[in-house]
Amino acid sequence: MVLSYNLRDFPACGMENLQSILESIQPTYKLPALAVALVTSEGMSAIAAVGDRKYGSGIPLTVGDRFHLGSCTKVITATLMGILLETGTTLQWQTTLQKLHSPPSVDKANVDRSSYASHIPQVK
Length: 124
Fold this sequence. Notes:
The protein is α+β, with helices and mostly antiparallel strands. It has 4 helices and 2 strands; from the N terminus they run αββααα.
């Protein structure tokens, strides 16, 4: 599960504050574990982890534990695209790589950006 929050919702969010925020989010969504890093253009400003390393094990999750992201990059790409669209750029969900790059830098240059949001490839 990817939860997205705007950093403006967490003014001056430090390590201790982030930990307490995660401790309130985890039971609300019934998550076995949750880890978050707040990263800005200046680097990582806070990192925290709550929950069990393995569900029901009682072994606490740490900020050094690794998560398998699988195909989360599609969700992250769609989220970043949505953020760009909200800023008023000339991009649209239907903008293709071919339109952005000349000459096309990938074979499937006509893949529609909305494919990332739907997880269904739509090559034109």
